[in-house]
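__Record contents__

***
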Amino acid sequence: MRVLVACELSGVVRDAFVRAGHSAYSCDIEDSESRGLHYKGDVLDLLEGWAPVRFSQECQELQDDVDLEFCPVSMVESCCCYCYGPTQEGIEYKEVEGGLLGRPVARPHWDLIIAHPPCTYLCSSGLHWNKRIEGRTQKTEDALRFVWTLLDAPCEKIALENPRGCIGTRIRHSDQVIQPYQFGHDASKETHLWLKNLPILEPTGEILPRWVDGKPRWANQLDSGQNRLGPSKDRARIRSRTYKGIAAAMAAQWGDLDV
């Protein structure tokens, strides 16, 4: 499958699909935290089917059996990425600030999009600030429009994840709520999924909590229920990372669907 993981810095979901044998890109306005196929730029470019033009030398560093000057279209399915050469037939090109994008003329590029839009102005825990900070309400409206754009992308299969928030009240209710403790992690983090032509994720291994005054608590929580992760400049980035067990389930269950 050709997989786009939108708004991902960690590379966790991207790498899970790569390990499962798929061609996967992550995309964000910042650099990826891990080595892999990552487009630093506007995800709206990629939602239209574009992908970064990559040459075989770059592919060589990621997959040893790619040894052609350019990976031809006929090799795309077995290649580690879409490395369109700038003179190939059947490919159209678009110059962007970060370089060159290409896409096949005959068919759409992405078989699956998994999107992680920033939750700062969407999650329930922060919406009360909209009445206290000037301009924040408009940022929520902008964030909701971005979510609409992701959900309406020209792709047959889409998954969008976010915490509980105004997506569920302003756009539509989520299709599924998952927790990392359902996928082999001793952690609690309520995550909502909005799905298009995808089945719900089946749990792969439940981790039981400790109990404090009759309430369940996991390892990432204090006895009070607060997250153990203290305030820092990287706190939001660390908390936004997808748990590897969830990413592995996505790759195993959604990566095995017909395209």
